[in-house]
Amino acid sequence: MGKNVLEEVPQAPAYKPVEPAPENKISIIGVILAFFLFVTLVLLGERIIFDMNRYANPHVDGTESGYNYSKYPYSSYSSERSGLSNARIYYKNANKNSYVTFKILIHSAFIIPAFLFVFLLYYVYHLKKGDINLRVVIFAYFGFALWMLLHLLGELGIYIIDRFQNAAVYIILIILAMIMTALGILLQKKVNQPKAN
Using alpha carbons only, what angle is made at residue 111 by residues 109 and 112, rounded to the nearest 5 degrees? Predict the structure, then answer.
């Protein structure tokens, strides 16, 4: 006989069910440890910015453990206390505006680079590489960076409400707005980028 036409027609491959994506498991212990890491990083960051202000601010007249009204009379000096120790920073009431301006600049010199570094880690290890093993730790660091950024924004808000004088505040706010805009666009591009299989 002749050729069988059905043998020449290419056959569709047999249906193969799609396997579900592997589960991304995060352990409860990992989440608890990440929470403690977050708290530790926040305490460390708060201590770092307090000590940076204590040593780098030119308007700090002294540091004491507790109140010392004999050396720093209440009528002439103001003080700030560390949330993590009994140390107090003393500065003259007449220099309060300059003290707070320098304090915000010193804090921003630590917080903005720390935030950018942690965001870079988040971008590389979570978004770019998708490393599930680092996810919990990266979220702890990212939470720390956001906390510190909110701390800085809170200080700036209080400063603007109290003084509304200095151009340095506008510069920092503009820098923060540019950073947030760029990072938001970068994240949105990454989310909308087609997945390569």
Answer: 75
DSSP letters for 71-140: TS-TTTEEEEE-SSSSEEEEEEGGGHHHHHHHHHHHHHHHHHHHHHHHHHHIIIIIIIS--GGGHHHHHH
pLDDT confidence bin for 19, thresholds 50/70/90: low
- Residue 172 CA to chain centroid, in angstroms? 16
Per-domain residue ranges of the chain: 26-59+95-191
pLDDT at position 55, please? 93
Mean pLDDT along residues 158-170: 71
| Beta pairing class for 60-65 and 77-81 | unpaired
Tokens representing 102? 């320098």
Closest alpha carbon to 111 in 22, 171, 58, 172: 172
For residue 64, the surrounding DSSP H or E stretch is strand 60-65
- pLDDT bucket at 125, cuts 50 / 70 / 90: confident
Q: In the prediction, which pLDDT does 15 show? A: 62
Query: Would the pTM count as exceeding 0.90?
Result: no
Rounded Cα–Cα distance for residues 52 and 82 (Å):
12
